[in-house]
Amino acid sequence: MENVDSLLVHGTVVTMDADYRIIPDGAIAIRGDSIAAVGPSADILEAYSAEDVVNCEGHVIIPGLINAHTHVPMTLLRGLADDLRLDVWLMGYMMPTEQQFVNPEFVELGTRIACAEMIRSGVTTFNDMYYFEESVAKATAEVGMRAICGQTILKFPSPDSESYEAALERCRQFIANWHGHPLIIPAVAPHAPYTTTDQILSDCRDLALEFDIPLHIHIAETAQEVSDHREEYEMPVVPWVKKLGLFDAKVIAAHCVHLDRGEIHTLEHNGVGVSHNPSSNLKLASGIAPITDMLKIGVSVGIGTDGPASNNDLDMIEEARLAAFLAKVDTDDPTSLPARTALDMITRMGAKALHIDHLVGSLEPGKRADIAVIDMRRMHNWPVFSRDPNAVYSRIIYAAKSTDVVHVVCNGAWLMRDNILSTLDESILLEQATEVAQEIDTFLIAREGDILSKLLAIGGLEREESFEVQVKAHIDTREPLDRLLAHPDVVVVKQNHYKQYDTYFEFGPPNYERVRYREDDYIDAMGNVENIRTRLTLTSREKEREFPSAIILSRSRFYSPATRPLRFYREYFQAEVEREVSKERLRWHIRYRGKPMYVNLDRLMSPQRDGFFVEVKSRTWSLKDAEEKASMIAEMLAYIGIESDALLKQEYVTLASKLGASA
Amino acid sequence: MENVDSLLVHGTVVTMDADYRIIPDGAIAIRGDSIAAVGPSADILEAYSAEDVVNCEGHVIIPGLINAHTHVPMTLLRGLADDLRLDVWLMGYMMPTEQQFVNPEFVELGTRIACAEMIRSGVTTFNDMYYFEESVAKATAEVGMRAICGQTILKFPSPDSESYEAALERCRQFIANWHGHPLIIPAVAPHAPYTTTDQILSDCRDLALEFDIPLHIHIAETAQEVSDHREEYEMPVVPWVKKLGLFDAKVIAAHCVHLDRGEIHTLEHNGVGVSHNPSSNLKLASGIAPITDMLKIGVSVGIGTDGPASNNDLDMIEEARLAAFLAKVDTDDPTSLPARTALDMITRMGAKALHIDHLVGSLEPGKRADIAVIDMRRMHNWPVFSRDPNAVYSRIIYAAKSTDVVHVVCNGAWLMRDNILSTLDESILLEQATEVAQEIDTFLIAREGDILSKLLAIGGLEREESFEVQVKAHIDTREPLDRLLAHPDVVVVKQNHYKQYDTYFEFGPPNYERVRYREDDYIDAMGNVENIRTRLTLTSREKEREFPSAIILSRSRFYSPATRPLRFYREYFQAEVEREVSKERLRWHIRYRGKPMYVNLDRLMSPQRDGFFVEVKSRTWSLKDAEEKASMIAEMLAYIGIESDALLKQEYVTLASKLGASA
Question: Tell me, what's the ipTM?
């Protein structure tokens, strides 16, 4: 009789080996970091002894679950912003917060929280991608879980690297430090084709080949990504990265929602593992990945939770259930992706997708002792039928809850026993997370209360001149304007013709700020739109000084190019009031006695008004200059016979509100 | 200071009232069966006192959840058969098992198990449809939960009624007995338009109106149902039942997966409540219901689990999460069905869909005290951000687990306190369920081992004559056959021409049974298919007696019309081997010296063979008669010059196997 470290006995052993062997009253012998034997309890108890014998009656013993794609430190951003469109969520909330808060301590804490949650739900291995990945590795190794840790490489600056060269160097250093660790497999993680360059992808491939480590990347997550890629490269994403030689490495491709059959065959031919992330793909409305086709064609597909900020948890049983459900509705066939396949995807096939099936994924002698034990005697998972041999898979996938997991062993070490975590103190983690969340709250609340910060958070801003002198009058014909342009002191420098579509987002107290989204459609001589420009302008409530025949506005005014669609800003700013103004504008850049000014001839389209408005404007940093220009504008108006009581002292948008434009 | 029965204090009260009021440090006073007051803890503690004061710090207090569509006794069939197509699942497993096992005791036990599971997950109200519904009502009332109990009405016999008239009478009695109960609202539940008749629907409507009770029905669950309905009635399901006056009653329509916009408007105009059942619709591949459109148009939509045999649990938090996820991917828009709406659907809007929003669904003074309290300090639901006022909804829907529910109150009474159930003993339920499951297992295992039982379970069978005399020979031209038909002792009674497509399902030891699915395509004089007939024939291994020039087969042989598609039988029988034979057949019904016989001229199409086969056959109950016919057949063959060594003694299907036909 041989002595081993632990014996798990009298459970239903669901081996997930190649024959899907199920041992009804089964046992497992654990020696060191590995499984020494698997078999009927009677045989194992005859051959092995141990001080630590765990009775698993009424439980199933399964391979430790594998989360094939996640960003574990994002536990600290869980629930920060939900039910938003991908760009608003990512560029409006996640990235600005990450840029501000992500550092090694944040990453370590977020990782520990994730480990606690994952162990509780039976997970022993995860495949990660984040910044400061050495901190993910450190925390995970201390906890005693297994992980593939992918250091993120982006073409733009990230929380841990000012440039992609720096990120690659950081990654190389990380890999060199962790290569050969018993629990951590370092990896290189170029974020995605659209956030890297061909050069980055090829450098990452070389690094992966040099150390023989996995390369973890997001592929074809959204339809937009794929259509942008097709437009730019005239081919879909997969053939493109294959052409770059990416698949020479051991690739793990996350998402793969929008692939055609040819691309799926390419993945299969090249041994690319896929991580399917159903919750994230639903929650962010990315789509339903063609998993049934992938499985038919022979791709190894694992399942991932994605980061807990887009899920919002790390529950692999729920994720596997959802994968089974989605495949059925996607193929109109309830026999698609049966429970056994779902469990396979989070055990043996998941390990294969991560290129580590020689180590983990099934309960077989020689493999690492990564094991989860589930109590199957809970009310929500009762009764038990024995007619169908697949019933045990069905019970695990369709009725068990992650909270039914009672024991977890990883690499031969106990991480949870009778629902008590061995290597983590959750009460401390809860406290530490509370502190971080409060800091993030303070940062975001300040930002939300201040539209300028909110605008700053999503891109660069330029400050404009502090003073604007402006006057506006209604005219029935353009004759007065022509007379002004013919004035002997007026020199016309340039003329433009365009249509302007303005959307104003207005905010209430204390600052009464206003963000204008303006689209300028430049019209050429033929009357066609030759160019479109969009930009944002932020103003706070103006301080006005009224002159007899002009208004000087003194205000802080910022602008930035609007790189995202109007819809983005609408959802991001969530203004109290929204108004629209559109007009056709002829603009002359003139000099009046040497002073640069604008003269506009506007025809309002919305709110609709007959006739024209003539507008004379100038901007300056100097109050003295502003006052001087105000007098000049008075002279100009007098010259063309516009009385000061004919002046319109409001902005068009105020007109819009009075006319009851869209709110 | 007023004394009340219980005070829940210091929790985040999520009222789900019309203003979606959230009270951060909130409290609820419970008096009798109702909510006496809701407000900030400080105010409530100043105005009310109670012996029972429960500190809910770190918890959210929400309205008890509402499961809008289920069949609770089916907990006892949970996991019995999964990953099967709807018809195989329903007609192959559920219905035969129900027909055998469902009785009042079964229903009571199944209901108690469901109640235990639902209370654990924060549910206080459910809307049920099953047989022996008075037993559901009885068990539920004893447990102390609230339910709308719908007695099923079907056009065919059911476990509780031999006819629909009997079912209606049983329903009327049930309603009369339970009308006015504080917890139970009896209802009439015509199963679905396709399983009832116009008369039944109209009788059910009258019954619902007579007692002013809800009418619960399945509507447009599958695309097949809708296309069948359109074919038969030339309109979709909703306008049809509206035309029948069904919507005069307070209708709760379950599923509504396949509706057009016009039908959704009809539901809204008629105040029909809908139950959306996402897990069931995915698991059975029924489709994704157009919930976003329904909500936009103003239909009250609740969420249901459907029966636990098609889910496989009763977890409303998971169900609401799935509803939110699905709406997003269905509309390509992650802002669709945000968390607050999802919670609304399982509280206030759910109550409205069930026509009981005057009683429950929100935490407001005067409403029934139906309350769930969730511990929000679990690792998988941490940290907490306070920037976004909707964050609490997001935490409940996207991260909480039903196992985080700690307290449940229904109608003012405690059903669960600190995770301990007050009115149910789960260990007893587990034991009782085990017994029932074992009986069902025994029944099904016996049936599965015996193809005859399996065939019997899904429809009527007829036994055929025990003896078959048959002979078969290959001929190059049809000349010998024509000579036989011209024989002076032969009278041709009738002639047919058809193509036969046979699929054989073959089973191994001990009985070596074989089920043949045969499609006969009758060909008319013009060469067109005029009629198609399908039937099943079961034979067990034949006992053969070989005569010099004929074979007498003695075997049990059963046949039945095949009312379902080939695919159904393929999935239901799961044969070890499958073979196909197709042929073109000319058949003459003849009398030879007064004895009825068949003469066939067959041209094999698959497995393909040149020339023809001539076959002479007769069936009889009598061995003596069989022997006599065998001699006659020998005479006939001799007459046309076929030697006994030219005879083919096998069946075509054996030929098929030898030719390596599909297996």
Answer: 0.83
